[in-house]
Write a structure and sequence with these properties.
36% helix, 9 strands, 267 residues, Rossmann fold, single chain, 18% strand, alpha/beta, nine-stranded mixed β-sheet
Amino acid sequence: MGFETMPFAEVDGARLFYEITGSGPPLVFVHGAGGNQLIWFQQVPSFARTFTSVSYDQRGWGRSIAPEDGVSGRAFVTDLSGLLDALGIDAAHLVAHSMGGWTALGLAHRHPERVRSLTLCGTTGGIETAEIRTAVRLGHEPEPDEDLPFTAAASLSARFVRERPDLAYLYTTIGGLNPPHPRLPMADHLRSINVLSAEQAAALRVPVQFVAGEESSAVPPAAIKLAQRLVPGSRFVLVPGTGHAVFYEQPGIFNRLVERFIAETSS
């Protein structure tokens, strides 16, 4: 298993931290707003057996450094394309969570030749219609669960926090390593990364798999299902008993879904 540690790529005024592990076809992991490159620790060692697994921090997250003028979501898709250029990767399989879906689907929209397959976890990827906006609003923010042992990241289901407080604490701690973004309204930030209309979603020609957690409130599964229906040939998988971060709460199930999807689309 090959391993290269702690390098940075200079892309459009930012220094992007990345890590490469393993060998084989390239597979890139794109984290969400509550995580960073470290959040994929249950995926990278598994996939590095058969893939060149690349995980990185988006600008302003983790160890990546944004330009002095601050974090700009408009650069996120360009960052991913630039990172692939810096690593000499023409095209890759992508796995993205939450905010990372806006970045990854943006690349699939702008540069479909660079995306071999795309698994989106807990995200619409920026596909936006009035119906999707309504589904997001109706499914948002459940009542707080007073029985939880501590305040954990909203991405995690209450069930997971109760049953695995150790991993729930780790998830929250990893997110806490990100620099603060005091003037970054998340909804505005996401829309600045990538927005696709129903017509643009229908024009996508990249294999896309949408994975949703049944108990997610951050991005409700009903909204993700609506987005999936707009993408020709895509698939939707609902994982019971999990929250927004299926890849973290159910890594065995999630990894198998990705492996199977890549195998089917590659054949």
